[in-house]
Amino acid sequence: MIHCELLVVGAGAAGISAAVSAWKAGCHSILLADRAVQPGGILPQCLHEGFGIATFGKELTGPEYAAKLSESLQRTDILYYPETEVLSIAHEKTAVISRRGALDQVGFEKLLLATGSREKTIGALPIAGTRPAGIFTAGQAQERINLLHQDLGQNILILGSGDLGMIIARRFTLEGKHVIAVLEQNAHYSGMARNYHRCIEACRIPIRFRTTVTEVHGTGRICGVTIRNLETGEREQIPCDTLIIAVGLIPERELVRGLGDPDWLYSVGNCRQIYDIVDSAVAEAEQITRKALSL
Ligand SMILES: Cc1cc2nc3c(=O)[nH]c(=O)nc-3n(C[C@H](O)[C@H](O)[C@H](O)COP(=O)(O)OP(=O)(O)OC[C@H]3O[C@@H](n4cnc5c(N)ncnc54)[C@H](O)[C@@H]3O)c2cc1C
After folding, report:
1. Minimal-distance CA residue to ligand 1 atom 33
2. Do the strands 2-9 and 102-113 form a parallel or antiparallel pair, or are they unpaired?
3. Exposed (0-12), middle (13-18) or buried (19+): which is 94, by Cβ within 10 Å?
4. Residue 85: beta bridge partners?
């Protein structure tokens, strides 16, 4: 069994910042665990610029921001375990971890949950029809294109005009794909204005407001969808070979479900609330960490 004063679960922007600020505040018994191979959470797959304006005064890409976090981690002696999944957390202030194929137990005094978020999938939406190949969430698509260099399809329809939807629409366009349209149920795009200008306007991607997908068609591979105008009720069939679901993120809190609200547990970053701007997630993670340590 491993013992530490502070266990931080998740080495994304929030987890690393929390661990480093705890270390700077004098807590030198910290274990930072993440199931991923590299630190940074969602950041390494976000190749676009737009990170770090408040913190660094200039726009960085996701990997550049992750590299800065990584450097700050390396300047400490925090015990960092990559490829380590935290499987469960118990009231007795112990956690079960799986590290490179072996199970172990960690005893801790305080725990900072920094497990990020997960995406809403098509299963969460009232969409009829089949569930063939060719349907991805925006984050999955981003990871497959940017990190795994996969070719996901040619004629792309995107559901949702939040930041994820707009950024992935531009990514597909830069890959030479045909983005048929971004569909948005509201009367206005839901992401940041700068992403609308840089992604939708600059790439001349059609956006259809007050419109949603009601049915998926295809066996084996998706061949089209039915869309509906929410004002007129008018339906239309649109052929496509790829459908991207970009309808939002949900804080990832499975690990602490059923634990209640013990005084040793704190949450930072997207598992606490969804942050559109990484600088805000980091600033608040540092603040919460200071509070956690002063108790
Ligand atoms: C597509 C996209 C584009 C964005 N664009 C911008 C932008 O342009 N500018 C900007 O400022 N912000 C942007 N953001 C927001 C910003 O990236 C996030 O707010 C921030 O990175 C969230 O950090 P986090 O540490 O909370 O979560 P994450 O980065 O998701 O990190 C969570 C970590 O927890 C780990 N984990 C989860 N469960 C476990 C477990 N059981 N055991 C071990 N490890 C676990 C995961 O592997 C992951 O590494 C964007 C976000 C997304 C999704």
Report:
1. 10
2. parallel
3. middle
4. 98
Domain boundaries, the chain: 2-118+250-294, 121-247
Rounded distance, CA 41 to CA 38, Å?
8
Q: How confident is the model at residue 261 (pLDDT cuts 50, 70, 90)?
A: very high
Mean pLDDT of the region 89-98: 98
CA 12–ligand 1 middle distance (angstroms):
6
pLDDT per residue over 202-250, tens digit each?
A: 999 999 999 999 999 999 999 999 999 999 999 999 999 999 999 999 9
42, 80, 170, best to mutate for ligand 1 pocket (most atoms within 8 Å of CB): 42
The CATH code of domain 2-118+250-294 reads 3.50.50.60
Residue 5: Cβ within 10 Å count: 14
For 121-247, CATH number out of 3.30.450.20, 2.60.40.3200, 3.50.50.60, 3.90.1030.10 equals: 3.50.50.60
- For residue 252, report the distance from its CA to the centre of ligand 1, in Å: 10
Contact 122, 18 (CB under 8 A): no
